[in-house]
Amino acid sequence: MLGPVILAASRSDRMRRLVSAAPVTKQVVNRFIPGETVGAILPVIEDLAGNGLELTMDVVGEDITTPAQAGAAREAYLELIDRLKPLELGPRAEMSVKLSMFGQALDGGHELALENVRPVVEAAADIGTTVTLDAEDHTTLDSMFAIHEELRKDFPQTGCVIQAYLFRTEADARRLAASGSRVRLVKGAYKEPAEVAYQDRHEIDKAYVRILRTLMTGDGYPMIGSHDPRLIAVAQDLARSAGRTLDEYEFQMLYGIRSDEHLRLAAEGHRMRVYTAYGTDWYGYFMRRLAEKPANLRFFLRSMVSKG
User: Fold this and answer.
1) Are 259 and 240 in contact (CB under 8 A)?
2) How many Cβ atoms sit within 10 Å of the Cβ of residue 142?
3) Which residues does the annotation mark as catalytic?
């Protein structure tokens, strides 16, 4: 399987230099990351919203090594929120944040991440939207869930992400489904050991369906993070069986992947949210997109060959 190899490469400084230096890389990266600055991304936001789509915005960058960098990440999100305010999109444009960007891995990182993310959640609430805490590798999750619980005391609309490939997630889903949380379910995009995560794609898919059934029959708001046509069809069946209306769950897909499906689901009346990343520190995000799906890697390799 190439996925684990690519994920390992995402942590390699040597591979970062090689991939970043390839002449074709920037062209391919633009498929997944449509801009590097707030100014560049605003027209993309307006275009997506104009086509009936919703967004969740991610400022890319996870390799934070100092508190100053974590503070800069906070300021980048606050700038984004300030620039979104005149668009008056409200909950149609929310934020996704990785707590690693806010200093979670540093000394005293739990408290530092909470301190940095809270102003972002407050600012998002001020313009009528919210924040979802992205899931990262399994060692960070207890901290993420604790921060999520703390933020929800004042901002109950704060969401979180759970990953189907982790053994722990079925229990996490039962807890969150009963709490009224907004929960995005994804398959998972980090290299995890066999002791904590399913390694077989078929087992991951089965776990995804079990967890999604728990979310759909619970009291929370499920967000289906998948491009898989089979899982999208299953999600629709589970929603109908649970008696959910179209505004009681949503689909989420990545910018640049299955864009026609984004529009189709929106045209059918589904809430369809596009995960839209921007920024200059794109390498880790880009490599995970390649690892998630063989078609993404093939697209990249074909582009390199055709431009070589």
Assistant:
1) no
2) 11
3) 134, 184
253 backbone dihedrals φ, ψ, rounded to 5°:
-140, 160
As a whole number of angstroms, the distance between CA 204 and CA 207 comes to 5
> How far apart, in whole angstroms, are the C-alpha atoms of residue 201 and residue 291?
13
User: Quick check: 248 and 223 in contact, CB under 8 A?
Assistant: no
Q: Give the three-class secondary structure for 63.
A: coil
Using an 8 Å Cβ cutoff, are 86 and 50 in contact? no
Q: Single out the residue of 105, 25, 103, 89 nearest to residue 57, CA to CA.
A: 89
Average pLDDT over residues 185-197: 94
- The angle that helices 294-307 and 2-9 make with each other, rounded to 10 degrees, is 70
Helices (H), the chain: 2-9, 13-21, 25-32, 38-50, 67-84, 109-126, 141-152, 169-177, 201-217, 229-241, 259-267, 283-292, 294-307
Instruction: Give burial (CB, 10 Å; 0-12/13-18/19+) of 40.
Output: exposed
Residue type at 40 in one-letter notation: A
Distances 72 to 67, 102, 117 between C-alpha atoms, Å: 9, 9, 12
Sorting pLDDT into bands at 50, 70 and 90, what band is 127? very high
Cβ atoms of 18 and 303 closer than 8 Å? no
Which of 7-21, 168-182, 249-263 bottoms out in mean pLDDT, i.e. has the lowest?
Answer: 7-21
Give pTM, 2 decimals: 0.87
